[in-house]
User: Which sequence fits this backbone?
């Protein structure tokens, strides 16, 4: 029970109420002592007034008056004259004197606690003001045994009452906490457990309904998390299905391209100058397509194959991309510029780097053509001591908001209508495999710039 929220609330409530009752107990016991002594003063005053009414009372009556007042002596000061009105034999000398005419609260509390924790009985003198101004002062001597016993009985009654109030209050709070907090929390836990059993089932997503604002905020946050997770799981399932379909298509496409590769061997033997010039590019394109199909098949089994890092002449790779895209441009007013110096080397996998740059250039070309305005795409290289930086920039219209929001996410970051966003997602994964990073440097109405950062040396050293 102590490990439950309601159980701890119960124990804490009892403790806090008892602490509050103790704080009430101290001034209460002081007040009780003061009332007790004042009542003895009033009784003594009544007894002294009886003596004034009949100065010839017997010794037996005097003793009975003192016994009823529970005092030993009564001294009354009237008209500046101090008179011993009633007296009897005292069991012990007077040990202390207490003046109740104008005591402070701290004095009353201190005297009460001192008496409560001092069990030895003693005779004390108590001074007070007579009731209804029947004199200047009245003082009595009393035995403290009865006073302390009365204080102990009163204190025990307060403690018992405090315990009853504490238990009753704690029980009410226990029930309230269970209804207001514990039950809704258990409901949230139940939703979480049911959702964990089948996260793909949207019917198991929590529906906020708590009346407590903080709990409702927690339910709303959990609902958002579950909704996003369910969507991600569904997307993952679609990706898995797509991966299987792509693997099958790639398998058949690889066989077709392999057959086409055999025909290109004969085309290379043609004596036609145009054919001789175009044949090597056709062979290279078909070879890359075959490699891509093989990589897709490998990805469908596990993941993108690790890059084979070598010193790649980056200018040649960029030039292959420029020539390939130039054929797709046709007569459109779009300029492709290769600013990479001949002889520049980067540590990369040539085939994977070609795919990344080709994806970026193709995306830029499609965006500019879709905008219907002339433009330019530039590929440049910056060399630094520890990394190589490839920039692919264009003068296109910039990325749409959806693409910016879901950049590098498959099926969400498409840059044109009908696009899947796979190109950027694949490119980012390939560059991460090199130990580098593909990032968007800028994208606005003046154009878009992507950066490819490739570390020099082994990726393990970065």
Assistant:
């Amino acid at each position: 029970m102590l490990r439950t929220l309601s159980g701890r609330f119960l124990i804490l409530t009892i403790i806090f109420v008892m602490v509050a009752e103790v704080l009430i107990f101290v001034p209460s016991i002081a007040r009780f002592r003061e009332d007790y002594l004042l009542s003895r003063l009033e009784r003594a005053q009544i007894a002294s007034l009886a003596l004034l009414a009949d100065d010839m009372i017997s010794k037996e009556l005097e003793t009975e008056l003192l016994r009823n007042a529970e005092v030993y002596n009564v001294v009354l000061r009237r008209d500046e004259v101090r008179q011993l009105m009633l007296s009897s034999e005292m069991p012990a000398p007077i040990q202390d004197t207490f003046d109740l005419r104008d005591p402070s609260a701290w004095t009353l509390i201190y005297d009460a606690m001192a008496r409560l924790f001092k069990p030895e009985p003693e005779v004390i003198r108590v001074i007070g003001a007579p009731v209804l101004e029947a004199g200047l002062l009245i003082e009595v001597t009393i035995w403290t045994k009865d006073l302390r016993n009365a204080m102990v009985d009163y204190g025990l009654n307060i403690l018992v009452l405090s315990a009853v109030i504490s238990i009753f209050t704690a029980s009410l709070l226990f029930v309230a906490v269970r209804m207001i907090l514990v039950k809704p929390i258990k409901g949230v836990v139940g939703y979480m457990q049911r959702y964990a059993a089948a996260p793909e089932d949207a019917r198991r997503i929590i529906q906020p309904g708590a009346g407590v604002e903080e709990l409702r905020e927690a339910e709303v946050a959990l609902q958002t998390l579950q909704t996003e997770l369910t969507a991600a799981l569904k997307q993952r399932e679609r990706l898995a299905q797509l991966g299987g379909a792509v693997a099958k298509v790639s398998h058949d496409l690889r066989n077709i391209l392999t057959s086409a590769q055999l025909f290109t061997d004969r085309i290379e033997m043609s004596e036609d100058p145009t054919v001789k010039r175009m044949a090597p590019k056709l062979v290279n394109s078909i070879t890359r397509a075959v490699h891509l199909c093989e990589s897709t098949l490998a990805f469908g089994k596990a993941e993108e194959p690790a890059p084979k890092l070598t010193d790649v002449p980056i200018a040649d790779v960029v030039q292959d991309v420029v020539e390939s895209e130039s054929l797709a441009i046709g007569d459109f007013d779009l300029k492709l510029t290769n600013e990479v110096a001949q002889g520049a080397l980067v540590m990369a996998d040539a085939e994977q780097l070609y795919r990344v740059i080709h994806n970026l250039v193709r995306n830029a070309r499609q965006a500019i053509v879709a905008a219907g305005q002339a433009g330019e795409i530039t590929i440049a290289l910056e060399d630094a001591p520890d990394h190589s930086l490839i920039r692919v920039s264009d003068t296109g219209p910039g990325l749409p908001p959806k693409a910016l929001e879901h950049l590098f996410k498959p099926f969400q970051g498409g840059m044109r209508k009908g696009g899947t966003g796979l190109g950027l997602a694949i490119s980012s994964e390939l560059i991460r495999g090199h130990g580098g990073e593909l990032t968007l440097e800028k994208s606005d109405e003046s154009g878009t710039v992507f950066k490819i950062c490739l570390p020099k040396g082994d990726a393990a050293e970065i």
